[in-house]
Design goal:
alpha/beta, Pyruvate Kinase, Chain: A, domain 1, 6 helices, 5 strands, about 15% strand
């Protein structure tokens, strides 16, 4: 049995850890509220932008644009958004395993990463890292998102990959975050829009100065909007997972403290009983 001093030292250590996990849980909860608000506010814009672009492309079957060009798929690009830090439960592991499960050929496919965890994961497994972006803010600036999007677009237009997919984690609620992978390039109309065109449905939009001009301007902004929305979803998911993980760690620490306290009390009782027996035996020996 461990000494009383060792048990007390262990209890103090667990209490100190519990204070840290409790503080991290509170910080994550505060950041989650803001991140969740930003992610939910960005969803209608992303969905509406996707619907407009999809409708426009569907009604222009002969439109030629470098971001709509379908090529024979030899290499595929993947833009993977993970966290810069750990202590998020299974958030990073679940997303990275999900993304690597969709990668067809690690020797030819190109990986674009956002976050240190994604970079480290693919670097250790010797994937081809096309681009790396670290230290993403909770609310990324327009310039940073634009730089990431333009780099991804340039890789497609230069022929480094023939398709580009975006892998991120969608925030559902505090205890549930779902990994997603969506196709960014080449841009394809939604199935609903294609069916409307086949049925002869007419567009409800009037475009000025012209559809070609708007397509040329909107497609890069559309990619930027999707990347920005995915980053916000990923940030909200990260803080939700972190808050849940730190909450569980705090509860586990409390259970450990209670268990160690029982062990301490038993050890003290055993020590007191032993001392009483020694006193009694000494008294009997002196009689």
């Amino acid at each position: 049995m461990k000494s009383l001093r060792e048990i007390r030292r262990r209890i103090r250590s667990v209490k100190n850890t519990q204070q840290i996990t409790k503080a991290m849980e509170m910080v994550a909860a505060a950041k989650l509220r803001k991140a969740q608000e930003r992610a939910e506010a960005a969803r209608p814009y992303a969905e509406q932008m996707k619907a407009i672009i999809s409708r426009l492309v569907s009604h222009m079957p002969n439109l030629q644009h470098q971001l709509l060009e379908k090529r024979e798929v030899k290499n595929t690009g993947y833009l993977v958004i993970a966290a810069d830090r750990g202590l998020c439960g299974g958030y990073n592991t679940g997303l990275l395993r999900f993304a690597s499960g969709h990668i067809k050929d690690k020797n030819t496919d190109q990986i674009l990463t956002i976050g240190k965890k994604a970079r480290d994961y693919f670097r250790r497994r010797q994937y081809n890292l096309y681009a790396v972006h670290l230290d993403m803010e909770d609310q990324p600036g327009v310039k940073k998102v634009k730089d990431i999007s333009q780099e991804a677009i340039k890789g497609f237009t230069d022929g480094n990959y023939d398709e580009l997919y975006l892998a991120y984690t969608e925030f559902v609620n505090v205890v549930r975050q779902v990994p997603r992978i969506v196709k960014l390039l080449p841009m394809e109309p939604q199935i609903e829009e294609q069916e409307e065109v086949k049925k002869g449905a007419k567009a409800l939009y009037t475009f000025e100065p012209g559809e070609e001009v708007i397509i040329d301007s909107f497609l890069p902004k559309y990619i930027e909007g999707l990347v920005y929305h995915a980053i916000l979803e990923a940030k909200a998911s990260e803080y939700g997972a972190k808050m849940t993980a730190m909450g569980s760690a705090t509860e586990n620490a409390q259970e450990m403290i209670e268990s160690l306290t029982i062990v301490l009390n038993r050890a003290r009782q055993a020590t007191i009983t032993q001392e009483i027996l020694e006193i009694c035996n000494t008294a009997l020996a002196l009689q």
